[in-house]
Structure formats: structure tokens, C-alpha cells
Amino acid sequence: MSDDGGLLAARLSEKLLADLRLIASVAERLGARAWLVGGPVRDALLGLRVRDIDVAVEGDAHAVAEALARGVRGRAVLHRDFLTAVVRLPDGRRWDLATARRESYPAPGALPVVEPASIEDDLRRRDFTINAMAVRLRPEGPSDLLDPFGGRHDIRRKVLRVLHGRSFVDDPTRIVRAAVYAARLGFGIEADTMGWLAEAVGAGALATVSGHRLGEQLRRGIETDAAPDVLANLEAWEVLPWLGLPARLERRAALDALPLGRRRLGLRATSIGPAAFALAAGERAEAAARHLALPRRYADTGRHLRALLAAGVLAREGGPSRPSEWEEVFGGAGPGVVLAVWALVGEDRRGALRAWWRLRRRLVLSIGGDDLLAAGLPEGPAIGVGLRAAWLKLLDGNAPTRERQLAIALAAARDWLGGEGREGGRRHEECE
């Protein structure tokens, strides 16, 4: 094993190393050569743990994928137009394989036309030099590093550099990817690359690709703790309007607070995406989410946040304080809304919001709809009304026992039934 192969091996789990040896053995048996390419090689050179397998095959990747799937009792999914394949393993893992290929673009922003080629050609089509490296895979383990464009040197310099001047015109999604990599890795943009990027933006290159493709790349950047810096890069490069967003980030302080907020609230990094998007988009959140074909939670977060702001929830005086009041404010809003509000409110209110959020994730009612039916309530909305009342009391610490919860739920449901569901029915002072 070469020094480069040893460096890669040190960043791989034993399971991944065994996977790569198997892939190399099957490829060799079929007269092909396998290379680990792109992100895994980059991450190994950055000193990061490698978690994914991305393999280029000089030969028939589809044949290799099918043979692998048979050997591990998995399933091969073949994409013939792009010469790619995915092997899905029984334990849920996946291996991504592709025939080494060259690309040509029939028009700026169009999807490429691909044809089989050498590994050198395959690396030449990639976005940045740091992703244009490969390590030869052999049955005995990873071997030599192939780095024809100086990616390793650029990693040491901490710069992003494209391989040619038309890169951002051929594939304008690389503009968004540049913002993502620069933010996530803490890299700068090489001078010529920055000039070509600015020219492409100024020439309207982003209008040649679909919103769906731009949205895919944006999500990869903003569903991480790097979201504030990703958006700041896009703002500085005058890209935001091409994504349907305002040209300026009016709530930069709140955006910067999101990574801390998601840790304080115990949320996954993916929750940052909808929150950051809502804060950046403002009134345009729903329209921009549609344009970028983002998941529904993005538009929902923007809509909920706008409604809360309009209702004055962030006002310094008279805002929610008790857990039940926070619960009433947020209703069925998702974690992205909670995170965005946490970032917007003052430090004096963040503690109360966090306490409510953690409390609601820990507590569980001791009663259910069947208990209310057994007590004589009819099926219908009154069941939900009763359970909601008990839940709010539980949040405030006023319904610690099953008996207390049942009494509160029955009283609220009967009151609702007595008032035929209208607001202003008799309140239950005995349950306070």
C-alpha cells in the first residue's frame, strides 16, 4: 500500500476498507479498474473521517454493480443515461458507482451528454480541483493518488479553483456549490475562479438552469451549521435574487445565531435549512420555495414565521412566558419555526422558549382518546379539545397525575359540547 493509500486507509472504518477491497476485486475480475474519487479523497486529505463510497470504474460500472449486488444479496439500481449505478446493501448502506466518463454540454446550463472515457477524462469534467482526485483501488487495499490538476496543493492553500474558464457557464449550479464548499471548508476562492464566477453571474448564467437543480445544491449547504456563511457568500456574489430571495440579508444576526440555537434546542442540523431560508426570504419564502422545488417544510416554515411576526409574538412586552403559552403560540409549527423564533427573540426569552421545547419533547399524556370515550364522551372534535386542555395543563405542571389529566380533559370536552364548540364557552375554574 502506498503512502497515499495508507493516508486514505487511516480515515476509513474497517467496514469501508473491506467494502473497497471487495469492489476492487469484483472490478478486476471483470477486467475493469476501480478508483475512489471526489469527496472521499478530498475528505481524507483534509483529515476528515470518510463515510461514503464514490467509485469511478474504467470499464462497465453497470456490470460491476450487478455483480456486487449478487455477491452481497443487495440490489443494483442502474441509470443508463448517465452511466451511473447504486448498489443498495441489505443493511441500508449504499455504494455509488459510475463508469469513468467525459461530458459535453449541448447548451449552457443543460444536463451533460456523457460517454465512457479514461479516469483522467473523468477527473477533468469535475467542478473544483479539490474534487478532481482519485485513489486506485486494488484487492489488497487503496493505492496511489492521481492528482492531475493540483487538488492536493489547493487543499493545502485552502482555495477553491475550477478546472477551466467555462466551468460556471457549463454548469451554473457550481456557483452555489462554490458558496457551500467555501463556507463548509473555510476556503477562499482563487482569483481567476472568482472572476469567472462573477462574469457568469453577471451574464445571467443562473437563468439557464432549473430552480429544482439550484434548490438541490442550496439545501446541501443550508441544512448544515454553515448555513449563515453559505447565504452570506451568495449575498456577496449577488446570487440571491436568482434564487428568488431578496438581494440583502436583513436578519443577519438571527441567521448567525442559528447554529447555536439548534444545539441549545437539541435539533438536527437539517432543521437549520428551513429556518435559515425563512429568515433570508422573508415575505418571499413560499414563492421562492416553490421556484426552487424545496420540500414542503420550507414553505410551511416561512408561512408560520410570517404569521407569528404579524401577530406580534416577538414583541418585548406581553409575549409568552409559561410553557402552555409558548405551545399556544406555535401550535403545530415544525422545529424550523421554533429555531427561527429562538434566533429572533432576545436572550432573556430564549431560555423560556428552550425550556418549553425540551419539556414538550419529554412529557407524554397518561390518557388518550379511548379513556375519554370510556368515560362517556361521544366520538368527535370534543375528544381533541379535551386532550389539548390536559396537555396544556401538563406543560405548566398542573396535571401531574392520570386522574388529574382525565378530569381536566372531561371538563374541557363537556364545556365545548355544552357550548356547541363556540368560543366563549364556560371556562373551568375548578381545573385551574
Widest sheet: strand ordering: 3-4-5-2-1-8-9
Number of domains: 3
Overall number of strands: 11
* CATH superfamily label of the largest domain: cca-adding enzyme, domain 2
Description:
The structure is a single chain. With 432 residues, this protein is α+β, with helices and mostly antiparallel strands. The chain folds into three domains: 150 residues, Beta Polymerase, domain 2, CATH 3.30.460.10; 194 residues, cca-adding enzyme, domain 2; 63 residues, no CATH class. It contains 21 helices and eleven strands. Helix 20 packs across helix 21. The protein is globular, with a radius of gyration of 27 Å.
Please give the structural blueprint:
Layout: H1 3-10, H2 14-29, E1 33-37, H3 39-45, E2 54-58, H4 61-72, E3 75-79, E4 84-88, E5 94-99, E6 101-104, E7 113-116, H5 119-124, E8 134-138, E9 141-146, H6 151-157, E10 159-160, H7 167-170, H8 173-185, E11 188-189, H9 191-202, H10 211-222, H11 227-236, H12 252-264, H13 272-281, H14 285-291, H15 296-310, H16 323-330, H17 335-344, H18 347-362, H19 369-374, H20 381-395, H21 402-418
Question: Descriptors for this entry?
Answer:
Beta Polymerase, domain 2; globular; 21 helices; 432 residues; alpha+beta; two-stranded antiparallel ribbon; 11 strands; cca-adding enzyme, domain 2; single chain; seven-stranded mixed β-sheet
State the gist of this model.
The chain is 52% helix and 11% strand. The chain is an alpha+beta fold.
